[in-house]
Every structure is written in C-alpha cells, then in structure tokens.
C-alpha cells in the first residue's frame, strides 16, 4: 500500500476518535491564556498514543514530537487551542457546557485534527525521514497571543524546523476541499486609541470653547485620507474607527472625546510608516483646530505571509490528498492570525480546511458566530492532510 493510502486509511480508522476528541474539547471550551484543562486533555491523548511531549510551554502550550529512524529535518505542524467569549446558540447535544464560552473559531477542530495527525505519524514513523513537531498553541484569540511566547520558549529551536504549517477551518468552503493562497494572506492588526481634548462648556456659546466633538470629526475624516492618499493603491489597508464617545448633552459640549479603532494592512514597511502618519495626522489636525490629541497604538499580530514555494507544495500535497478539483485559491482576508509570527521566522503556510456541509453552501456559517456548526466529516481530511503534508515535506531532498 502506498504511503498516501496508508495515511488515508489511518485517518479513516481514527475518524470517530477525532470527532470524539473535538466534541470533548467543544463541550469544555476555555478562554485565551486559561486553557489548563484543554492542555491536560491534549497531554492525556498524546500519552495514550505513546507520543513524546512536553506540557507547560509558555503557559498552556504543549509540544509533541514524532521522529523516524533516521535523523533528518524537522517540520512544524501548529494548532491553536483557545475559545471565545461567546454564548453558544447551536443547540447541539455536545454544545458548550460553559456559559459565555464557545469554540466559535474551530480551534477545537484544529486541535482534534492535529492530535490525530500526530497519532497517524506515530504509526508511520518508519516512513519519516526526520521529525514532526506538533505545536498546540494557547491564546490565539487575544493579544499579545500565544505564538510569540511559544517561539520565545523555544518552539522553533533545537533544531530549527525547516517549515511551519497551520490549518484553519473555513465554513464557506465545502467539506473535502482545501483553500490556499501564496504570498500575503492575512492582515496585521493594530488597535488605535485616541482622546481629543478641547474646552467644554455651553453648547450655545461655542466662541468660549474649543469643541472636541468637531475636532474629533475632523480627525476621523483626516485619518481616512491617510489610507486613500498615502498607501499604495495596490496594498490593501483598512482603518476603521468603531468607537467615538463624546458624552455631552443637547446643550453641553464635553471637554474631551474618546475614540478607538483598528488599522490593518499586509505590508510591514507601510504598516510602520502608517503608524507615524496616523500620529502626525491626529495630533496635527487637533492642534490646527486649537485642541490636542493623545494617541496610543497597540501593535497586534503582524501580517501573515505564506511562503510561495512552500504554499505551492502544500497545494500539490492537497491535490494528491483530496484531488486537484478540490483545491481552491483563496482571496486575501483582512482578518488577523498569530501564525504570522512563525511564518516570520521560517517559511510558513497557513491554509484553510473546508467544513461546510454541501446542503449549506448557499447560507454558510461564519467564524465567531454563536451558531457556528462545522461538518465533522471534514475532520478526517484535516487530520490526514496535516500528516501527509508533514511526510511529503520531510521527504524533500534539499
Ligand atoms: Ni481562529
């Protein structure tokens, strides 16, 4: 039997366990940085598969390794394990048992797939010309994220892996299909907090005041012009102010206005330049109108760049695994993902696993929705393709 068939047969044999693991995690979701039980569950499963692992990496991270007989290169497979502060509304029999916490981004599926991939690989270690390192990473959903801490704790050291591969469910892609995109794939995420200061007072006597509401309005418009006039039109960027609180009254101009928003792009050079422009624009606009503006930019995840060569190989492995007609090109998204940190250190590829049942393609679910329900039939593909990609990468001769 070919190695591909062996992987597929094992993925099928472990399909039921993969679903059971996913449901177990789904019922007991834990918020970012609080994934103690999830980490313990992962460690128990790895132990039952007799796979070497260490827990407590950067808090609740777990790292497992499967090695073949020959020493060779190392390849990283990464899953995230945390859940979101959302009240589940699916009504499923295995819905979250924790009020207000839900696996609404599929990290339960990512973890279950990676567990099974590790199990498959441990059964095929005779075919492994190297080592597969599985990273179960905490806290993807909340800044500063778990990826950077995992890297600082040595997740990409001793030895340095050749590549990092990550998988995310996509509820708009049909079950059995895979989505890939080479190059820029996901955006950097920066939070912007602004306070515009003026002089408050009676709304009927503006000549005595410095109106921060008017200044804040100018700041919002001026910030939009940075995006339209200072970024290259071919570089996607978005700046949105989602919070603007003046808190005066019909006849009261408040002394200050609070604002907050997000800035996202896919080019790190432009991102750094934009931070300076945003500051200059907000401070300068406020000063020109007699007020002042305090500004704080909290830098989040960098943009996610999928290595071209690796991504074209992953597309090839996916075509071998699910058939070329089931591999789709994905559009760029302005969502963020801390897998970007691994992909900054070594060549990385983050791809999507279709989890939409055929009957729901016209009205798909969405990530972070309280009704997110994924087709568990897709988990078999998710687990098997991770294992297959790792084997194929290790078989590459440099
Ligand atoms: Ni996610």
How far the N terminus sits from the C terminus, by CA atoms, comes to 26 Å
Q: DSSP helix count?
A: 10
* CATH-derived architecture of the largest domain: 3-Layer(aba) Sandwich
Order of helices and strands: HHHEEEHEHEEEEEHEEEHEEHEHEH
Q: Tally the structural domains.
A: 2
Total number of beta strands = 16
Given as residue ranges, the uncertain stretches (5+ residues, pLDDT < 50) are none
Give the topology.
Elements: H1 3-13, H2 15-27, H3 36-48, E1 52-57, E2 61-67, E3 74-80, H4 107-123, E4 131-137, H5 147-152, E5 163-174, E6 178-180, E7 183-186, E8 190-197, E9 201-202, H6 212-230, E10 237-245, E11 252-253, E12 256-265, H7 268-288, E13 292-299, E14 304-306, H8 308-322, E15 327-329, H9 340-345, E16 348-356, H10 378-395
Parallel strand pairs: 3-4, 3-5, 5-16, 6-15
Antiparallel strand pairs: 1-2, 2-4, 6-16, 7-14, 8-12, 8-13, 9-11, 10-12
The structure holds nickel (II) ion.
Keywords:
Alpha-Beta Plaits; 2 domains; 398 residues; single chain; alpha/beta; 16 strands; four-stranded antiparallel sheet; binds nickel (II) ion; 10 helices; Aminopeptidase; eight-stranded mixed sheet
Walk me through the structure.
There is one protein chain. This protein is an alpha/beta fold and 398 residues long. The chain folds into two domains: 275 residues, 3-Layer(aba) Sandwich (Aminopeptidase), CATH 3.40.630.10; 110 residues, Alpha-Beta Plaits. The chain has ten helices and 16 strands. The strands form four sheets. The protein has an eight-stranded mixed sheet with strand order 1-2-4-3-5-16-6-15. A four-stranded antiparallel sheet has the order 10-12-8-13, covered by helices on one side. Strands 7-14 form a two-stranded antiparallel ribbon. Strand 1 and strand 2 form a beta hairpin. It is elongated and about 85 Å long. The model has no long low-confidence stretch (mean pLDDT 97). Nickel (II) ion (NI) binds next to loops.
């Amino acid at each position: 039997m070919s190695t591909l068939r062996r992987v597929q047969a094992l993925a099928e044999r472990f399909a039921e366990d993969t679903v059971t693991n996913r449901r177990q995690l789904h019922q007991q979701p834990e918020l970012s940085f609080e994934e103690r039980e999830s980490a313990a569950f992962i460690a128990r499963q790895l132990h039952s598969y007799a796979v070497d692992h260490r827990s407590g990496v950067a808090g609740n991270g777990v790292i497992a390794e499967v090695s073949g007989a020959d020493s060779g290169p190392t390849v990283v497979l990464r899953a995230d394990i945390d859940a979101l502060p959302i009240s589940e509304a699916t009504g499923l029999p295995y819905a979250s048992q924790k009020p207000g916490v839900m696996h609404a981004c599929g990290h339960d599926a990512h973890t279950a797939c990676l567990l099974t991939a590790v199990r498959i690989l441990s059964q095929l270690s005779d075919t492994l010309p190297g080592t597969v390192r599985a990273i179960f990473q905490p806290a993807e959903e909340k800044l500063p994220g778990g990826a950077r801490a995992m890297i600082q704790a040595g997740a990409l050291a001793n030895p340095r892996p050749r590549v990092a591969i990550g998988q995310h469910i996509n509820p708009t892609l049909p079950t059995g299909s895979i989505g890939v995109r080479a190059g820029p794939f996901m955006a950097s995420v920066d939070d912007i907090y602004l306070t515009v200061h003026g002089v408050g007072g009676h709304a009927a006597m503006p000549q005595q005041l410095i109106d921060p509401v008017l200044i804040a309005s100018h700041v919002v418009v001026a910030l939009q012009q940075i995006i339209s006039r200072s970024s290259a039109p071919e570089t996607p960027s978005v700046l949105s102010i989602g919070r603007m609180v003046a808190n005066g009254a019909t006849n009261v101009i408040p002394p200050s206005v609070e604002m907050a928003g997000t800035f996202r792009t896919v080019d790190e050079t432009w991102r750094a330049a934009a931070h300076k422009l945003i500051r200059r624009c907000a401070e300068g606009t406020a000063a020109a109108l007699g007020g002042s503006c305090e500004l704080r930019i909290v830098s989040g995840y960098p943009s996610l760049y999928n290595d071209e060569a690796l991504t074209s190989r992953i597309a090839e492995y996916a075509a071998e695994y699910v058939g070329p007609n089931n591999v789709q090109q994905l559009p760029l998204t302005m969502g963020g993902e801390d897998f970007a940190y691994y992909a900054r250190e070594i060549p990385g590829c983050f791809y999507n696993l279709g989890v939409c049942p055929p009957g729901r393609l016209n009205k798909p679910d969405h990530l972070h929705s309280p009704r997110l329900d994924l087709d568990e039939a897709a988990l078999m593909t998710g687990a098997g393709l991770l294992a297959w990609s790792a084997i194929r990468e290790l078989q590459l001769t440099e």
